[in-house]
Amino acid sequence: MADLRALFSSNNPEYDAVEAFTDRQSQWAAVAAALGEHLQHVARPGFDVEDLESPRANVLMFYGVGGAGKSTLLRKIEAALTLAEDRPAQWGAPAWTQRLLPIRIDLSRSVSTGSDYERVLLTIRLELARALGRTLPSFDLALRNYWETVHPGELLDEYIRRTGIAGKVTNLLPGQLQAGVGEIAAALQLPGLVGSAAGQITSALVTALRDRHDRAQALAGAARTADLLEATPDLESLSYYPHLLAWDLAQLPAKKAVTPVIILDTFEDTADRHRDLERLLQRLVWLMPASFFVLAGRTSLQWADPALHGQLDWTGPTSWPSLSTARSVPAPRTAAPTGRQHLIGDLSAQDCETHLARRLTVEGRPLIDADIRAAITTRSHGLPLHLDLAVSRYLEIRRTGRTPVAADFDCSFPALLARTLSDLTAEERHLLRSVSLLDAWDLDLATRAAGLTQQATARRLTERPLIAENPYALWPYHLHRAIRTAVREDTHSEDRWTDTDWHQAATRALAALGEQWTTATAQAPSRMLLVACLRQGLRLARDHRLTDLGWLTAAAFDYADDSVWEPLTLPTDIIGAPDTPADALAELLTAITRRQREHRQRTVERLTTVLDSGLLSSSLTELALYYRAKAYKDLDRGAAARAGMRQVADADGRLAPKARRGLANLDRLAGDFPAALAAVPTLGWKGGHNRVLGDIHWSHANTPQAVAAFEAGRTEAEERGVAGERAMMQVRLALALSFTDPVRADEELALAHQLLDGLDQRANNLLASIVALIKDAGTVGVTDRAQALYADIDSAGLPYLHRFVELAVAFHHAVREEDQDLAATIDRLHTLTATGDFAYFCDIAFFMAALPLPGPSTIRWTTSEDDVRTAWRGLVRARQEHLRAGN
Prior knowledge:
There is one protein chain. 58% of the residues lie in helices and 5% in strands. The protein is mainly α. Among the domains are: 4-22 and 345-408, no CATH class; 135-255, no CATH class; 412-496, Winged helix-like DNA-binding domain superfamily/Winged helix DNA-binding domain (Arc Repressor Mutant, subunit A), CATH 1.10.10.10; 677-886, Serine Threonine Protein Phosphatase 5, Tetratricopeptide repeat, CATH 1.25.40. Strands 3-4-5-2-6 form a 5-stranded parallel β-sheet, sandwiched between helices. Strand 9 (467-469) and strand 10 (477-479) form a beta hairpin. 47% of the residues are buried.
């Protein structure tokens, strides 16, 4: 259909303007087409409701973000199927003549798997009771027997009234269930059982069915009726009763026949939260093949995905051929859409591009150039209205005689904002602007950011379609990104904010984030909340040049203490030196975090720039100095590392224990083990005393004491909930064991990889790969694997790890008694340790091979050199024995 608005926007008739957006006509066309196909299918002579193997095509899915109008669409569909006069005129009349019974159920009221499935099934049966006015014998008997068993003493009509399933007509269903039991008792010619417990009637019916009693077969003759009635009445059995319901419906006389159209709204409350409930509802769909199901949720149905095998009963494209590909591009108004999954609301980038390319054409070619389409798509965030307005802007620019360019569409549209604000109260508009500062929020955060005292306004705003909800996110609500941009760039609204208004709102929002974080930390510290608050808080402080960083300083230290290093994903890097305290803090944390993915030299450069800016507080200056010193250490710049650590330790601030640990480690790296050991009692937990102690012991081939120290450090980290430190201790535990016990080392290394998963610790991941080399020393392929690690170490800017690789290779050659290869490895180690750091690795390599040192050693061990030599040579001999035993 032509887009009349575009058609009348120009005197030039050369291009074709096709209307891209419809008033849900394509969705109705999808329903009409799918339902028509379904009715034709079930009317064929070979159709059998008891067929449990044929593929199913009796389901249609609408999916999309919250607030896209899915529930409204389903209500319109229900109304259109109920009465012709309730169907929008533009939808047109359907082709079918069969009697339909729409039954809409909102799954958002889910309480638990069992109770919600009961509610669904009772709702369906009650609607059938209203429409048919008659019993459905086999299902009614099974349902009544289930109810008397699972809900003893609870009247069904009271339950229906209490749960609000049926409103005022609570006696319809209980009455029909009672009548159904009486009908079966009469059919079995057992008048004495009328009024008896359903269990007695059930037993009599099962016996009659097993004996092929004609009247029993006529009333409840589905092939599996007896088996279902004999099964223990529980939730599992209840989930198969729809098979009986389908059979009962198939036996209705032609004048009473009806096709249920079961509409399940907010299916995400089932699919995402409870796979168990989804499995029960999938059974409902599968076991009622003559009924048609319309579902709506936030995500497409995954039933055709073979990966769900085992989680659901029927999966894969063979079972659900029409669900194998989710349809995300609405069909043109002139065509009935195909497929059974349809996106509602926002469009993907590809969908936006497709629409813009088809909206305005010249001789079949897109009028809007590709770069402009890309710019519009990026700005729209998939919002159809934004695309519509962008097309209008394109035509408006052409009317001026100028050719549009991509930069013309790097904007928001006042009309979009005007439509958004038109039905909001003044208080709601104030709150909308406040939350536009936040990436995501909850009612409390929104209320505080807006400076309000009650949550009512925030609650009302969340009910608007411009707010999307993810109930499983830390903060469940977020403003549509295109609308958010329009709000932030507003320069036309009568009540638009001034720069001062925005600054004050940013200050309130930052304070609100801080209150949430500090309150939660006092009760139950949450790493997820910490990172989320930092991400939003840093952006607010940076974008709005806030000078009072307040809680952000403490949060920055907590973030660094855990050694997890989730990316903070700030919008852009700072160009040049930072010019505000917020800039400096943001760059500081960015540099610390990205050192896991950047060369350590880049880390040094970034931290030096931040320090030279002079914008950091004294405590944050210590944070920058400490991590620059760590980077210096990794880069083999021992003197610079020691100077930085000494400066932090002397300041005696929050990082002083870690700096003292750094100094002890530098003593160890320099070969002064007694000095490192003497520092251990002064370090405590905060100074990583067990880590330092373990590193000293494994360097002396004292595995039992090293393992004990690393295990103690891991336990301390677990007790304090510090995931990063726990993972580091586990890697070092595996390192200590890798020389002595390859079997246990393999187990500990597997746990190390598990603990490292989700942590951004590049150095420890590389060290874990080296540990794998050591535990495999003496076997084939170790040197090739070692060679492959060199490039990863170089790209990470962690040259100190080359020494560990060479130590692993030296152990390997010593075990295999490959003297020439070992000599070459020792030469490389000499070169790598020329600065003095890790020089003891060269001595260890000589000890492993029982070779004399080439000259006096500068290493100060905690015990005699002979003891250390004997210990390391013993590890080589033990590995040789292990390999011989394995062969």
